[in-house]
Write a structure and sequence with these properties.
The chain has a 3-stranded mixed β-sheet with strand order 1-2-3. The chain has 153 residues and is mostly helical. It has one domain: Up-down Bundle (Four Helix Bundle (Hemerythrin (Met), subunit A)). Helix 1 runs antiparallel to helix 5, helix 1 runs parallel beside helix 6 and helix 3 runs antiparallel to helix 6. The longest helix has 25 residues.
Length: 153
């Protein structure tokens, strides 16, 4: 779990700098009408943190195998209007939520990491896998959508 903690901590500290080198106009551009702007991508990462905070907590105490529920990512981004919000607000939310995730992860007893969850299609994964997947999902968006855009500036 130490590598996961270090990875999340790295992005809490580093991601704001990536956004600060871009203008408001640049981070608000949607590459296509149905694609998120960089502000909305960061908002999506906040939504992912919100959803996973609940998962990381409940998987530790549920009596039966916890069933991971999907959510409508596009609706979450739209309803919360990340596009119309100031980037500083979204960055602050990202940092706060991920600091909470770090707190949860650091306090998970080792024996709880093997608790199972159903991720759909009767696929059972451990809490440890889900936490690793959370960081992988975050880094996928950062590397493939945010950082790649900054290199094109």
């Amino acid at each position: 779990m130490q590598k996961i903690v270090e990875g999340i901590n790295y992005w809490i500290k580093t991601l704001p700098d990536e956004y600060n080198i871009m203008s408001e106009e640049q981070i608000s551009i949607r590459p296509l009408p149905n694609k998120w702007s960089e502000k909305e991508i960061l908002g999506h990462l906040c939504d992912s943190a919100i959803i996973n905070i609940e998962r990381f907590i409940k998987i530790q105490y549920e009596e039966t195998i916890y069933v991971v529920q999907s959510y409508n990512q596009d609706q979450w981004v739209a309803v919360q209007n990340y596009q119309g919000r100031k980037i500083d607000e979204i960055i602050n939310l990202f940092q706060t939520l991920n600091n909470q995730i770090l707190n949860i992860i650091k306090n998970i007893p080792d024996e709880k990491l093997s608790n199972l969850c159903d991720i759909g299609n009767n696929q059972h994964k451990t809490l440890e896998w889900l936490i690793q997947d959370y960081l992988g999902h975050m880094e996928h968006h950062i590397h493939n959508q945010i950082l790649i855009e900054n290199k094109n500036l």
